[in-house]
Amino acid sequence: MIIPLYQAEIAHPSIRGRVTSLQQFMLGIGALIASWAAYGTFVHYPDSDKSWRIPLALQIVPAGILAALILLFPESPRWLIDHGRGPEGLATLAKLHAHGDESDPWVRSALSIYLWLSLTKV
Questions:
Q1: Residues contacting residue 23 through CB under 8 Å, at least 6 positions apart
Q2: How far, in Å, CA of 46 to CA of 64, rounded?
Q3: Which of 19, 24, 40, 111 could, after both became Cys, cross-link 11 (CB 3.0–4.6 A)?
C-alpha cells in the first residue's frame, strides 16, 4: 500500500502514471512466476520438502536485493517537510527533479504545495 504512494510522491508528474502502473504490472508478473514455480516443484517433487522450499527460496532472492537497495532510496520530500526538515526536503526535490537546482520553478512550486499541505495537515 505504501509503495505506490512513495513512488507517486517522488516520481515526476510526466512519468508518475507509468511508474505506478509498472509496479502493479510487476506484481502480476511476480504472481505468475510464483504460480508456475510452485506448480513445477509440486509436479517434480510431489512427496518432498523441495516442493515448498524451492518457491520460498526463489522469493527470498528479490526480497533480499530490495532490502539492501532500499537503503539507497531518498526520503520522501513531503515527509521531510512535514517533519520540520524543509531544507532537506528542498534538496531532495531538487535532486530528484532538477539535477540539484533548488531554484528550478517546478521544484519551488512543489515545495510550496508541500509546505501548504504540512501547514493544513491535509
A1: 3, 4, 7
A2: 28
A3: 19
Mean pLDDT of 64-79: 92
In angstroms, the CA 27 to CA 48 distance is 28
pTM for the structure as a whole: 0.72
Give me the mean pLDDT over the 24-52 stretch. Answer: 93
C-alpha cell at 117: 499541505
pLDDT (mean) for 90-112 = 92
